[in-house]
Design goal:
single chain; about 425 residues; Beta-Lactamase; alpha+beta; Alpha-Beta Plaits; 17 strands
Length: about 425
């Protein structure tokens, strides 16, 4: 085989290697124009070999990357370096930015003069996109106004963001490898947390309101969202919690609810909440063998006191009456004000019907004691009607109507007493 044949074979091998390389390959002449490009390079940018033959790498370089590309090229041409590696963007034929990792090597003759440049171009768009997404995620994570906390599969804290520290008062170092239990206020039961984790395990997500404790000891209302992060086969790798302080919002909502359900003067449940409590009590009593009694209380001589001493004294009298009623009944009972000088008492889950009589008599005696308001001594009394659920009536309206009837019976019999509803 002749020398020329060997050279020819080497050239063919060289060209074949370039053409079939899995990454983009190009050979540039001394004028830094494309002399040879392979299929991978053409596919990457959408140009044909013929189209690239009339272009230079600078012609298809992204405008924002031209300055740094020219700087490296100048150092290469002047012989300061024999090659360089650079991450840069090319513009495809369709005008789309393509991130690449470019490695340029120089071929020199025996005199040291460059005669060709070999370029290796690898598409790193997917990697750069992933890195951009990571940077974006990190930016969101660190700049989010919502506190974020990441735990491992054993529920140990592995990361928190600045908003977490701002809200809880704990630094990342203070909570690292500890469980979120350190933030617990103690207000939620074990059953609450068991149900929460049951939902996370089945649905992969849970959100709701919860009470937690700051480093300072302050207990606050928190909106919490927990999501399970799974790998490609569905195995949980981490849990991500997002939360924010909703104490003010919760307090505002509580005030609205309180305004809608409580009497503004006495702070007793109003008619609306009374009906709700009564219906709940009736539902519970059906599942037991105990007794439920309803007491309708109307104050005797209240109008005379109100007319003689004025509404301000009358209001104070109603407040003191409410306090006395609460002091007599059990904590499980409900005292409500329907309006004016009318009150209702729900005696739930009594062991005996006679227990209602004892409480009713205690209420009569309590109200009959003198009241001292604005340096004045006042005397009023109470007429009370007593009715039993299921025994006398089986719905809320019938109970109230029956108790009202029994109360008027007490008034007819001389006031300052209680009477049973007689069906």
């Amino acid at each position: 085989m002749t020398t020329n044949q060997l050279i020819s074979n080497d050239e063919k091998l060289f060209l074949s290697i370039i053409e079939h390389a899995p990454i983009g390959m190009c050979v540039l002449n001394k004028g830094y124009q494309f002399e040879l490009v392979n299929k991978a390079f053409c596919d990457m940018l959408g140009y044909s070999k013929w189209e690239l033959s009339s272009l230079t790498p600078m012609d298809i370089t992204h405008p924002d990357d031209k300055a740094v590309s020219l700087l490296h090229l100048d150092r290469l041409i002047k012989g300061k370096v024999d090659g360089y590696q650079l991450e840069k963007r090319y513009l495809s034929k369709a005008g789309i930015s393509v991130w690449t990792s470019l490695t340029i090597s120089v071929l020199r003759d025996d005199a040291g003069n460059p005669y060709n440049y070999i370029g290796q171009v690898q598409d790193i768009s997917a990697r750069r996109l992933f890195e951009d997404q990571l940077r974006l995620a990190a930016t969101v994570y660190n700049s989010s106004m919502q506190a974020m906390m990441v735990t491992d599969v054993q529920n140990r804290i592995v990361a928190t963001n600045p908003a977490f520290t701002a809200l809880t008062g704990y630094s990342t170092e203070e909570v690292m490898n500890k469980t979120p239990q350190m933030l617990s206020s103690g207000r939620q039961s074990k059953d609450f947390y068991a149900e929460m984790w049951k939902t996370i395990e089945s649905d992969g997500h849970w959100e709701g309101d919860i009470w937690n404790r700051k480093k300072s000891g302050e207990i606050y209302a928190e909106w919490l969202s927990i999501s399970a992060v799974k790998d490609e086969i569905g195995k949980v790798q981490n849990y991500v919690a997002l939360f924010s302080d909703v104490t003010k919002k919760r307090q505002a909502a509580d005030k609205i609810w309180e305004h809608a359900n409580y009497d503004a003067l006495t702070r007793l449940p109003n008619r609306r909440l009374f009906y709700d409590r009564l219906n709940q009590a009736m539902a519970r009593i059906k599942r037991t063998e105990k007794t439920l009694a309803l007491l309708f209380i109307d104050l005797d001589h209240f109008k005379e006191v109100n007319d003689q001493f004025g509404h301000q004294v009358g209001d104070e009298l109603l407040i003191q009456v409410a306090n006395r009623l609460i002091a007599v009944v059990r904590a499980s009972d409900t005292v409500a004000r329907l309006g004016g000088d009318e009150f209702m008492v729900i005696l739930s889950e009594l062991n005996e019907s006679s227990d209602a009589a004892k409480i009713a008599q205690s209420l009569v005696e309590s109200i009959f004691k003198p009241f001292y308001i604005a340096n004045e001594t006042m005397h009023i009394s109470a007429s009370i009607g007593v009715i039993f659920y299921l025994q006398d009536a089986d719905d809320a309206d019938s109970l109230i109507k029956g108790a009202d009837t029994a109360m008027y019976q007490s008034k007819k019999q001389g006031k300052n007493q209680f009477s049973y509803y007689l069906n």
